[in-house]
Amino acid sequence: MALLVLAAALLALAFPAVLQQIRPTAINYMLGMVMFGMGLTLNLQDFKIVFSRPKDVIVGCLAQFTVMPLLAWGLAQLFQLDEALALGVVLVGCCPGGTASNVITYLAKGDLALSVGMTGVSTLLAPLLTPLLTWALAGKSIQVDVASMFLSIFCVVILPIVVGLLVKWLWPNFTQRAIDYLPAFSSLAIAFLVAVVIAANAEKLLAGGLVIVVVVILHNVFGLSLGYLIASLLRMSDSKRRAVSIEVGMQNSGLASSLATIHFAAYPLATIPGAIFSVWHNLSGAAVAYLYNKKTAGSAKTNGHPFGK
């Protein structure tokens, strides 16, 4: 997926005219389809962790909705981003965890149940918290319609997930067959979303996009690091630290681009941070999974060595 999204971004930069014919609002429908697919894969067992280990989920979600929004605001101030780019970075920071975080947690041998639980809870909280946090951090300079954003997130995220759950309940055999194709479909949908956003702003991105790339990278890396640090300070197990780290650092950046398209059309560059984040966090996620696995292998080797601990 990381390579696919990167290839889509590069092609969009190289041949923007091809994709500029597509209306940016198409990304909302694609994101809705991805969320519908997420609903098909969920079941009630995924939410048992919320009741069996509420402390872990609460800690993770608190970190999600404090670390990333504050990091976004701080980086926007530090790099003195213009209003549109600052808004886009804040939108990314205020979104819930991305669905790719579950895959990365699995590859990193983290606590997958905790990751899925955090993604589910943060997604359910997003219609309320994402608009309110965006208003609190960006509302002084840009008008933020909290009620309208709430409705958009509900329609683009929550409603498709509920429909997916209903389809799974009513047609379980069909759902079981469809699930095999969902990872490929989701990857293509996210790649398409990224390509459309980048093509629409290709000229401006090529002219001065380096600073926003740096900000997005720092946002993600600091999020991954602080998520792990917070979990460590709370003495969580290593697998839980990995899950919290990845869940905090990886955002539903497609939602950020969607919200920017719907509600902040007067600031077209606000869609860019979400698109770049979608490219970068898939690359960094793969790297993090590799590093965590390397750490696990190193620990096993040390513990098995006659001179090891």
What's the structural blueprint in terms of helices and strands?
Blueprint: H1 2-14, H2 16-19, H3 26-41, H4 48-52, H5 54-78, H6 83-94, H7 100-107, H8 112-138, H9 146-170, H10 172-179, H11 182-200, H12 202-208, H13 210-233, H14 238-249, H15 253-263, H16 272-304
Helix pairs in contact: 1-11, 1-16, 3-9, 3-11, 5-6, 5-8, 5-13, 5-14, 6-8, 6-15, 6-16, 7-8, 7-14, 7-16, 8-9, 8-14, 9-10, 9-15, 11-16, 13-14, 13-16, 15-16
Query: Structural class of the secondary structure composition?
Result: mainly alpha
- The end-to-end distance, rounded to whole angstroms, is 38 Å
Unreliable parts = 305-309
Mean pLDDT: 87
The backbone outline, from C-alpha atoms, is globular
Helix-strand pattern, N to C? HHHHHHHHHHHHHHHH
Backbone CA Rg = 19 Å
Largest beta-sheet details: none
Share of residues in helices = over 70%
